[in-house]
Structures are given as structure tokens and as C-alpha cells.
Amino acid sequence: MTIQRRRFNHFLTASVAASSFLSPVLTHAQSSSRVLLRAGDQKGGLQALLDAAGELKNLPYDIKWSEFPAAAPLAEALNANAVDFGPIGDAPLLFTLAAGSRVKAFAASRSDAYGTAVLVAPHSPLKTAADLKGKSIATNRGSIGHLVTLKALESAGLKADDVQLRFIPPPDAKLALTQGSVDAWATWEPYTALAETSGHARVLVSGRGLWSGLSFLAATDAALAEKRAALADFKERVARAQVWSYQNAKPFGQSLARIVGIPADAAQLQFERRATRWQDIDAQVLADQQKTADFYLAAGLIKQRLDVRGTFDTSFNVGKG
Of 43, 108, 179, 309, whose CB count within 10 A is highest? Predict the structure, then answer.
């Protein structure tokens, strides 16, 4: 645990520095009478959405934002109790839960899975998932990109041992692909849209039919116990902001590009094709998550079966206490 915390502290210092371009919206000074939510975020995520929709105004609590380039370091921050909650995909959430993290998902969303994909260089000779045999693929270990890679291989009758997996973070993976040191890169939005619109990559295998499209807001057990009302309010604001974003797609795309610091065409593409909708954690969500957990077990990424029912807090569902 000491090593893990040391690694996280080192990463957090770099992460805060890297996120200095973000609009300083709502990093309020904490007062003794107000709850402070320590929010983790990923590039192209919640802060931009809430800011554009006006949902960061008149908050009854304070928010301190920390941005992470991927789910794995965000999950590590949750595990180290350095943030209270954050957005995380189904696969990385399972990965950190299997490692013993004391977190639960309290809100769920579904998106079109297309942008979680295996990418190749524009002029790569690879045409199908079967062509990945013997090739090198960069991705984050335990990420939704990793999951889609394994699913894509399975669809072609291949196994993980049939390729060379390189576990490196998105910025390094993109560089590796453009420089030709890997044959493919498995990633997610907005990295997919950025790579496509910049002409650096094309989609070889999309996540449609391979990934559930599920993502969650996950919080530490401590935050769920001590900051429940603030988390419930935050969840409602995110759901309202998501509806607003698709009713105001063009201005939101422009705002997203400005806040996140990516080109407008990439911001618009990844936002529109995600078609994200927030929903209750229902029986189908539980079934899909259990299916992913069982797949991870069969792939050897987790060591024992995980019953996902205990990894959700459904009391935040609409109409439930």
C-alpha cells in the first residue's frame, strides 16, 4: 500500500500540472459549513459538460476537480482516498474492485460503443480483427480498450497470446502508433475522435457488439456514507446536463472543445456519436456487468469470480431512497 500511495502521489503531482489548462470553474474555497466533493474526472468528461450546461452555478457544496488521462489512475486515486468519486468504465471499475478497492458505482450511463475501438495507421494493411494475429497492440491494462481488444480477438478466434499487448497510457500509445512502433492502439473517446480527425488513425474494429457501452460514477464507501446528499445532487445535475447537451449539440461541442482543449471537429464527433444517456442501475446493467466480470475471469485478468451485485449502490436510482 505504501508503494501504491507513493506511485499515486507522484502521478497526482503530474496530473494537476497537466490539467492547469482547464477552466478554474468551481474550485471553491472550502468553508466549515459546506461539504467538499473531491471529484475525479477524465479528459472530455464531467466538468466540461456541467460547465457548459450551467449546472456548476449555485451549488450547495464545493467541488475540487482533479483530471486524469485514463480510468486506471483515477481508480488508483479512489483506492488511495485522494478523490471521493469519478467517472469510470465498466471494465476498469471491475479491475479495481477485484483488487480490493472499497468503492461502489452509484450512477450508470450507456453510450454508443463505436468510439471504443482498435485503431491502426491510415494506410495500415490490416483490414479485420483476424489480421491482428502476431501484431503489437497498445492499450491500458484493465481499460475498456483492453476489454475491446480481447473481445475483438475472440470474435476472430484469437487469444491474447496471439498478439503482443503493450500496456502504455493514451498519449504514449498514440505516439507509438504514429511512429510505427506498434501496429494498433485500442482506446476510447475522445482519443479515437482526435486520432481520426487529425488523420493519424482509422478504426479497424469498433466496440459495437463487443462492449456494453456502460460507464459509471463510482465513489468511495466513505464518500457514499458521509456525502450522500451532495453526490445525489451531483448525479441529478449530470443527468440534466446530458439532456441539455444533446438539445444544444452545436454550442456544447464548441464549449467542449474550448474547455477540454481539443479541436472543435474532434469534440463534436466524439460527443455526438457517443449518444450518452444516464439511467437507473437496473437488472440489465447488473447482468451486463456480471457478464464482463465473468469474461475478465475467463481471460485471467481477475483471479476469482466477482459477484457484481455488491459493487453497486442502487439507492440513488430515481424514486428510491
Answer: 108
